[in-house]
Amino acid sequence: MVKILKYSFFDLIRSRWSLIYFLFFAITATSLLYLSNDTSRAIASLMNIIIVLCPLIGTMFGVMYYYNSREFAELLLAQPIKRSSIFLGQYLGLSISLTLSFVLGMGIPFVFYGILGSVEFANFAVLLLAGSMLTFTFVALAFVIAIKNENKIKGFGLAIVVWLFMAVLYDGLFLLSLFIFEDYPLDKFSLVMTVLNPVDLARILIMLQLDISALLGYTGAVFNKFFGTSMGFILTLICAILWIIVPVFGLNRLAGKKDF
Amino acid sequence: MKRILIILLCTWLASFTSDAATLEVCKGCTYQSIKAAIATAKSGDTVIVKKGTYKEGNIEIRKPLVLVGEGFPVVDGENDSEIFTIYADSVTISGFQIQNVGTSYTVDRAGINVVKSDHVVIKNNKLINTFFGIYLQKSKHNLIENNEIIGEAEEEMSSGNAIHLWYCKNIRIENNTLKKHRDGIYLEFVDSSRIVNNVSEGNVRYGLHFMFSNHDEYIDNTFRDNGAGVAVMFSRYILMDNNLFDHNWGTTAYGILLKEIYDSEIINSTFKKNTTAIYGESATRMKIHNNTFEQNGWALRLLGSCMDNTIKGNNFYSNTFDVTTNSSRNYNEYSGNYWDEYTGYDLDKDGVGDVPYHPVKLFSYIVTKSESSIVLLRSLFIDILNFAEKVTPVFTPATLVDEKPQMKPVL
């Protein structure tokens, strides 16, 4: 598995797309930092970009990479290698290379700006962590979709729908349910709803680190209390990890069963 | 006739002051305690207190005296008693360091307590850890100037106010620094008073708190980092001019909290980084003109009960929400403001945008309808909704509109 991981990783790192992805984040982060002159505000603006883009790029790259490397995978399948290690290797290779582009692209401007040792470092770390988590989750989801669908168009379509659902529609349903159940105490409910969607989870985690959390008022206080305790933190972490492990497990199972 | 009267009055006053004696208080002086000096002093005398520490419990002043501290003599209440209590008119207290009054849950003890006395002057004092700093009750024509009042308040229950006025008239409060109390300045039934150039910061509750007070002015003050900002309630004819409301930040903090206030003006003020810059409940006939709102969570939060207010010539920069209301109707007038999110154009180049601006975003409307939906703040879905609503307003009050949005910030 490590060999395949290595191969995928270096193959991707050399590709033009990784560089573009890296440059995109590097340029955005740099320009935001120098325009706002305030790390806290730059982090707040980057948050908006990350919670939309990391999942989108993750899904798109995932689906694309699977379809593109399908022939290579078939070639490998003819060898005496475990199926799980082929696909897991590819998955990890892609996720790690995307995360690396993301972390370096964001990290380098911030390091030059002096984030190391500044008070904002924890906030920035949460930002990076959230972005990485989103990448791992959505690449896994993309692989699952791609393995399930031989038809490329269908696979792409489904991947976009999944992204759209998580990033946009879910919040719409969330809002709708808040209105429908207006008469009930909704703090616990919104907490659960947030934890169940990786995009929302990332958004809230970053926002609670920032100044704007004061805007969240009473609900924000409930959230802060939850995420502030070690219990809340562990639960969040478990949820985030589950959002990676469950799709990866599914991917493994599907790859094992699939008739190539 | 009038002139003669004035001259007579002046000569009378002059003779009066020339009669006045000066008494000195210090370790080696005739008077070793402030109390002793006060006891022998006659009306109009000056008591000069030299540098040193005086622990004399409660000092009562029942005749018009001038008390002057030299080199900030320390008057200590040893956490057990009120310090100066003034029962006479025309008393002046200046240059003291008054400290350690101590918390009491039964009496409102103060560093300087003025009871039913007029023309009292309190200036250039330092008050440290005085439960209530300066307390005026049923007094008129007093001046509180250049004092530094620093408390150690941690919670509302066990703390007092830096300057507390109750049933007063014609008071001037100028150039004071007020820190770490429950309220920086508290006014209840106080009329025709001026509060100028004070700095009120780090107070547990409000930087300034008005209750049932009319015809007052507060000008050039700074309110920073207070637990809940400034509250103006049940008052009429208040002028709020050129104040700075800075970083009153917290889940229930406000720049100004308005409740049942009529015919007042908020002008030329700057609101920066407050959770809610102006929150209005039943605020009526207010003029909110020429203010700058910068980086606030909510800039204006006027509930449906606010009527006939005019909001003109203000600047709105980088606020999360510019205007919110919980009503689908609008009874206030918005005109000639600068909105940084305005995207219209100005073909005739007269500086006024040709497209009216609707400052209420759909999300702010949603949030006032259902509080908990604020958790969706900064979600992509919300941005899309806001955009759709901006193109064709359906939910947000269609009449809440600035017909003359400015293209450039109003100076």
From TrEMBL, chain A:
The entry's keywords: Membrane, Transmembrane, Transmembrane helix
Positions of transmembrane segments: 20-36, 42-67, 88-115, 121-146, 158-181, 201-221, 233-251
Name under which the protein is recorded: ABC transporter permease
From TrEMBL, chain B:
Ranges of residues in domain Periplasmic copper-binding protein NosD beta helix: 78-153, 159-344
Presence of the UniProt keyword Repeat in the record: yes
Signal peptide: 1-20
One protein family per Pfam: NosD
UniProt KW Transferase keyword: no
Record keywords, A-Z: Repeat, Signal, Ubl conjugation pathway
Pathway in which the depicted protein is active: Protein modification; protein ubiquitination
Highest taxon in the source lineage: Bacteria
UniProt cross-references to PANTHER family, sorted A to Z: F-BOX ONLY PROTEIN, F-BOX ONLY PROTEIN 10
Name of protein: Nitrous oxide reductase family maturation protein NosD
